Amino acid sequence: MSSSISVIHPNLSAGARKTLLTYLAISAVVFLLMMVFGASMRYEQSEWLGMGPQYFYQIMTAHGIGMIGIVGLAASAVMWFFLSRHVQLSTPILVANLVFFLIGVVLILGAIFIGGFAAAWTFLYPLPAMGKGVWGNHAAASYLVGLLLIGVGFLLLYLDTARGIMKKYGNLGKALGWPQLFFNSQDEAPPSAVIASTMVLIVNIAGIAAGAVVLVLSLVNLYMPSYELDPLLVKNLIYFFGHVFINAAIYQAVIAVYEILPLYTNRPWKPTKVFILSWTLSTLMVMSVYPHHLLMDFAMPKWALIMGQIISYMSGFPVLVVTAIGALTLIYRSGIKWDVTSRLLILSMLGWACGVIPAIVDGTISVNNVMHNTLWVPGHFHIYLLLGLLPMLFGFMYYLVQSNGNKVGAVDDVAFWFYLVGGMGFVTMFLLSGKESIPRRWAAHLSEWVPYDRIASVFATLVVIGALVFAYRFLTRLSRINIATS
Ligand code: HEM
Ligand SMILES: [Cu+2]
Question: Packing angle between helix 317-331 and helix 302-315, nearest 10 degrees?
């Protein structure tokens, strides 16, 4: 059970080390807090709590935006850590992103819990301007400005990765491995961390730009209602940004799988032509599938919806398949060392792969018309976020915790099983609820739905206990994490 995986980062300065650990420490705390929020929504639907709809929708808004923001932050730390082994990145920019993030978080929390803002994290037009006394325009503005600031921070970070990568590789095409893919170049392909980071910076710069545009438009409308927006355009921009940002978090966190699993199996993970091709295809597809969020909008051009359906079928696949097959070939008969880190990383592959199946079901226009506003939808995305993305991030934390031969105890193994069993049960209850046509985003449920909610609540509690151990371990071992050589 003990592992002697050593974590060394030759180029990491003390300042960068501290900043990255701060990113991750904040992430560990916020994961836990947001999970408690998530569980409390299930308790409310179970009629075990009596917070009432107003608090429910505030918590739903906070849980949605909080989880999306914090996985973005944690995943960018994974990317930065591995990318900076190959490329010179700016530590001041890394710090600046964190500062923008924290200021944004304060504004968003204030908007929700002081101002009463509860229009859901998607802030769809014209809801922010329609608080009807529950929240005012200033609260909505505080939310939008907070989000805008967080976007500015991330934009700086990805512009800096673009700068660093172009300085070393000449241009983004070379960093994506195109000479190897298209021109049979015999030079060694860029490392997977560079290929993945390049994809991410391309899609996230585009996504954040769209997000910034729609945030500014919404702000103008808030104070100048005569400046009306096109609701369909707004929805397109928001979902382009939201879809890209959350997917890019997975594409950053998966670098941890590429870099850490080989250490556990003693086999290298070299980018092949198929690997390079998949990342190039996913770069294009992740930006063109977002219309799967608009399948119910009859005013959308039909071709866009059909494109959304077809590309949804294909888009999850390339990177997922090369990663899953890559991981399996790496593990097969390798004598892999099993510990919390490797277990979490393998779970993340399974969770990511499983989540794609119900996603594709929902991405089918005829099914979507029936399922979209049911709990089926949180069901599928919690599979690949809770059981795919978060295990990558927790796995990375454990990898750091185990640096220099530091050991973790049996309680961590138990926590893993709590998380796994709780997570699987929890998402299964969402899917079953969706099958029963139970609507999503309802604070109060009919009495025949409550049994589903109660079973889900028990599973959610198991997940929270598991995550509590993960977070506790990371936070209490912070000072012993020794990764920089300088
Ligand atoms: C213990 C873990 C978690 C629990 C108990 C939980 C619970 C919930 C619940 C009850 C809802 C509302 C469902 C409804 O519409 O009635 C929800 C929505 C959501 N959750 Fe989670 N969740 C968890 C983890 C996560 C994670 C890890 C992420 C992302 C990384 C996430 C992202 C979201 C998002 C984006 C929504 C949609 C909010 C909206 O509809 O506006 N959750 N979650
Ligand atoms: Cu999407």
Answer: 10
CB distance 464 to ligand 1 below 6 Å: yes
Tell me which ligand sits closest to the C-alpha of residue 56: 1
d(CA 161, CA 155): 10
Residue 439 DSSP code: B
Q: What's the total number of domains in the chain? A: 1
Decide whether any atom of ligand 1 lies within 6 Å of the 39 Cβ. yes
- One-letter amino acid of 372: H
Q: Which range has the top average pLDDT, 38-47, 303-312, 356-365?
A: 38-47
Nearest to 22 by CA among 80, 84, 108, 98: 98
Structural domain contains residue 93: yes
Which atom of ligand 1 lies closest to the CA of 430?
A: 13
With a 6 Å cutoff on the Cβ, whether 378 touches ligand 1 is: yes
Residue 402, classed as helix, strand or coil, is coil
Alpha-carbon torsion angle 128, 129, 134, 138, nearest 10: 90
> Interior CA angle at 147 toward 144 and 149, to 5°?
110
Is residue 103 included in any domain, yes or no? yes
pLDDT digits (tens, 9 = 90+) for 214-232: 999 999 999 999 999 999 9
Query: Is the distance from the beta carbon of residue 246 to the nearest atom of ligand 1 less than 6 Å?
Result: no
Per residue in 3-30, pLDDT tens? 467 788 888 999 999 999 999 999 999 9
Range of the domain at 284: 14-349
Mutation choice for ligand 1 from 46, 71, 382, 458, CB with most ligand atoms inside 8 A: 382
DSSP code for 448: T
pTM of the model: 0.96
Nearest atom, ligand 1, residue 120 CA: 41
